[in-house]
């Protein structure tokens, strides 16, 4: 379906305007009738460019073969398929993309006036819709996984060595303080038995002069 203002490209993204589109993109759009939200997405499978729309229950879809896509480009004076996606993404960011859901179809409007870049999508049968939703779910999960793997390294407070050091530092300091209090040797203390005074070696017997007389 349509590109999102938060574009999530797949690992095989190809931005060469002369080559078939090989990126998936997503955005939310609003139904003109009841203001409900839907997901619009685009992707290419086996050379077929697809624009899709879903409310998480029903699915509307439009396939473009290379020939049909060229006609679409000429009709709307587009330089490439990527040009169409850029227009959709820009419109999503400005809020100028909308949808009109009907009984068996849905019309996607990319601009303020209904005649600008409008695409009519057909409603899929229940079983086919389930399969499309399943594939869409996994494509979005793969896109998120790719973004997580190529983005900044995730930070886990529970696994951070700095966090562990902070948690245990006060306890270590406390234990260290207790140990130092026990082992601290004061001047004159015995090295063998801390806490007892060291005995000095005898140097001889001293006699008083009065005793000699």
UniProtKB/TrEMBL annotation:
CDD domains: HD_PAXX_N. Residues 148-213 are annotated as: Disordered. Signal peptide: none annotated. It comes from Hucho hucho. This is PAXX non-homologous end joining factor. Pfam families: PAXX. PANTHER family: PROTEIN PAXX. Coiled coil: none annotated. It comes from the Eukaryota. One of its GO terms (biological process) is double-strand break repair via nonhomologous end joining. InterPro entries: PAXX, PAXX_N. Transmembrane segments: none annotated. GO terms for cellular component: nonhomologous end joining complex; nucleus; site of double-strand break. One of its GO terms (molecular function) is molecular adaptor activity.
